[in-house]
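DM from R.C. (forwarded with permission)

"hey, sorry to bug you on a friday — could you get me a structure for this? deadline for the figure draft is monday and I only need the backbone to look sensible"
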Amino acid sequence: MNDFLNSTSTVPEFVGASEIGDTIGMVIPRVDQQLLDKLHVTKQYKTLGILSDRTGAGPQIMAMDEGIKATNMECIDVEWPRDTKGGGGHGCLIIIGGDDPADARQAIRVALDNLHRTFGDVYNTKAGHLELQFTARAAGAAHLGLGAVEGKAFGLICGCPSGIGVVMGDKALKTAGVEPLNFTSPSHGTSYSNEGCLTISGDSGAVRQAVMAGREVGLKLLSQFGEEPVNDFPSYIK
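My reply, with the result:
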């Protein structure tokens, strides 16, 4: 797979693109104030970094979380388009802000480089998908996009069809002593995607254990459609 497309592009605003989730990263070194006034952002900065994709939200948000940790950029907007190129989940729009265009480019590069990892626990079949995410220390992108508590361990447990996500969440909470942050479902907190998603916080070891327990039951349930769920990249939650 050719991970980065148009890598020789001379477009100043282009940073990189990946076939993983059809994800593109761009930077606006000095955004037009008229546009900035109309964007749905929490703060205003002169320099914007943009990560946008067709398939995946959690993986891109968690990848951008690493970009935030590595730079002085701040996540100022996360939106969840109903997309996935016809599938059951979301795409994603992430906007970060800062003062230094070089910092913005670095944050985008770090995010793109992390997609292999954050897609490692996305499992697909023709009938649906599972997504699991974990970080020992959440930062601004996970906080704004997924409600994570900054500086604390965070986990995401998601299943499609959405009912699978309900059972996965129950199993996760029964397995380890973690704090449930939110549960999103088709009519509550998603862009009407067919997903059930539990987010959790707490001790790092407990959060990891809960996520793994949710994954275990989710894989068994999704396989009942007659197809083994497959991840395209190695699992990182172990």
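R.C.: lifesaver. The CA atoms of residues 154 and 201 lie 5 Å apart.
me: no worries. The chain is about 30% helix and 25% strand.
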